[in-house]
């Protein structure tokens, strides 16, 4: 009886993953040159993403920009949304702020089971949780270093972390070059890369990058890609994200008519970047888009056709549409609920209903806008099968020399950084702890296997893990 139950459960498990390989479960990504690749197959990985911050329409969960929705407490919210991500056909999401003191296993595992990667932000809206607008070196608080390392330590075990972002749109506040806060951002990136390197025995080399507004384009691109000390290999960001809201004329019918994007391409072609560049937010709004089924100005996402075309792929590694859901508290002044009129902050490809939902007493439900289907169609049509795999780029991009730093930024070592002056205990490295996700085959789950010398894993434990947490626990109950 027990054996047959076991066999039945095992078959159930096999059939649920039949035809799928680890490639379908967001295996670790790696960078060669300006592109991402799957470390499992070596295939090119086009990042087709969406920005995610599920702010409900009303209530306590609307008040800040940095609620960590990605914990067990909010499981009903992200379970609802991951189903939408699957239907939308994205393979990546971008989240902005997390609380590293909380457990994210459930969320990250559910995304992995859906084959979805995540860019995790290291900054947040709290005291000393981000680069400030002070002049360097004070714009980089020592506490931020600790926070960043703590987040990396907690998230390193998830194979589907695509990268960490060391900041979102820093360097907007100051324009005078002598007080520009960009050196703080750069030093923070360097510190985080140093942590990843120091911990290389127990974690993979997860990229640390930076996300910036698409302003002062050349300076910012070169500055974060360059090394003010040419011998310091940790100084450059591992990737660069640009939040780019350029030309989006509803009358444009071909990608050549996206004037601003053609210019963006031309500019980046001239920079000689040696790291991937992602459009970490894109998809601008314009009154010229068509009305569809009673909803004004529905975006057609012609940019997707541009971004994943052969020419653009040489410079850009993919992107994240902004954003999953319209945030009522931001949008409602100019585009009242149900957001069927044009408004400059009606950014979602869908919204939440009912109008007063708060995800505490009244659950929100996701309602797609007509443009949701436009985006799904564009993402589904992306074809990058003509990209060579990583072996080609490993040869092509053998230790490329980063561009020279723009003159106006002082070298990093010309500042006395609080992160070095304030004595701190070194942050511990991540513990070699595999995470086994329900719904993901065992062999696709292992992050870092414990050292061979560690205690042997019992047979029953293996079965439990293979079957995934939920079924496994039921089975364990049967066996004991
Ligand atoms: C919005 O659309 C108008 C009219 O089609 C166009 O002239 C304008 O450039 C567009 N705005 C942006 C930011 O692309």
TrEMBL record:
One of its GO terms (molecular function) is 1,3-beta-glucanosyltransferase activity. SUPFAM superfamilies: (Trans)glycosidases. One of its GO terms (cellular component) is plasma membrane. One of its GO terms (biological process) is cell wall (1->3)-beta-D-glucan biosynthetic process. The keyword Signal applies. It comes from the Eukaryota. Pfam families: Glyco_hydro_72 (PF03198). Gene3D superfamilies: Glycosidases (3.20.20.80). InterPro entries: GH (IPR017853), Glucanosyltransferase (IPR004886). Keywords: Disulfide bond, Glycoprotein, Signal. The keyword Nuclease does not apply. Residues 1-19 form the signal peptide. Belongs to the glycosyl hydrolase 72 family. This is Glucanosyltransferase GAS5.
């Amino acid at each position: 009886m027990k054996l047959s139950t076991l066999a039945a459960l095992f078959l159930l498990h096999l059939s649920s993953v039949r035809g799928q390989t680890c490639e379908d479960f967001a295996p670790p990504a790696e960078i060669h040159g300006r592109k991402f690749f799957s470390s499992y197959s070596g295939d090119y990985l086009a990042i087709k993403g969406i920005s995610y911050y599920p702010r409900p329409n009303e209530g306590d969960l609307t008040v800040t920009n940095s609620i960590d929705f990605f914990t067990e407490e909010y499981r009903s919210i992200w379970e609802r949304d991951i189903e939408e991500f699957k239907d939308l056909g994205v393979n990546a999401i971008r989240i902005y702020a997390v609380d590293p003191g909380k457990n994210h296993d459930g969320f990250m595992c559910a995304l992995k089971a859906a084959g979805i990667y995540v860019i995790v932000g290291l900054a947040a809206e709290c005291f000393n949780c981000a680069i400030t607008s002070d002049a360097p070196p004070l714009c980089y608080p020592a506490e931020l270093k600790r926070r960043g390392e703590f987040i990396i330590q907690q998230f390193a075990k998830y194979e589907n972390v695509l990268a960490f972002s060391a900041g979102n749109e820093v360097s907007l506040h100051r324009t005078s070059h002598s007080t520009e806060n960009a050196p703080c951002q750069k030093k923070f990136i360097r510190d985080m890369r140093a942590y990843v390197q120091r911990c290389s025995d127990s974690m993979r080399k997860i990229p640390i990058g930076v996300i910036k507004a698409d302003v002062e384009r050349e300076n910012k691109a070169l500055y974060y890609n360059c090394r003010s000390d040419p011998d310091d290999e940790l100084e450059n960001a591992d990737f660069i994200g640009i939040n780019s809201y350029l030309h989006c004329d509803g009358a444009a019918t071909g990608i050549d008519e996206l004037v601003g994007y053609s210019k963006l391409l031309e500019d980046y072609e001239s920079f000689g970047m040696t790291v991937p560049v992602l459009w970490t937010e894109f998809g601008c709004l314009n009154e010229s888009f068509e009305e569809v089924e009673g909803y004004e100005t529905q975006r057609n996402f012609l940019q997707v056709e541009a971004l994943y075309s052969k020419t653009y792929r040489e410079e850009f590694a993919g992107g994240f549409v902004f954003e999953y859901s319209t945030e009522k508290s931001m949008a409602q002044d100019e585009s009242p609920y149900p957001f069927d009129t044009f408004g400059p902050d009606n950014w979602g490809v869908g919204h939440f209903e009912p109008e007063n939902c708060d995800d505490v007493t009244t659950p929100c439900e996701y309602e797609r806008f007509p443009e949701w289907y436009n985006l799904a169609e564009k993402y589904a049509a992306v074809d990058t099968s003509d990209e060579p795999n990583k072996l080609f780029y490993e040869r092509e991009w053998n230790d490329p020399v980063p561009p020279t730093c723009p003159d106006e930024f002082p070298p990093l070592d010309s500042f006395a950084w609080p992160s070095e002056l304030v004595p701190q205990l070194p942050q511990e490295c991540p513990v070699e702890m595999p995470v086994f996700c329900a719904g993901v085959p065992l062999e696709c789950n292992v992050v870092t296997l414990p050292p061979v010398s560690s205690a042997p894993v019992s047979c029953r434990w293996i079965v439990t893990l293979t079957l995934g947490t939920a079924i496994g626990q039921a089975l364990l109950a049967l066996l004991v």
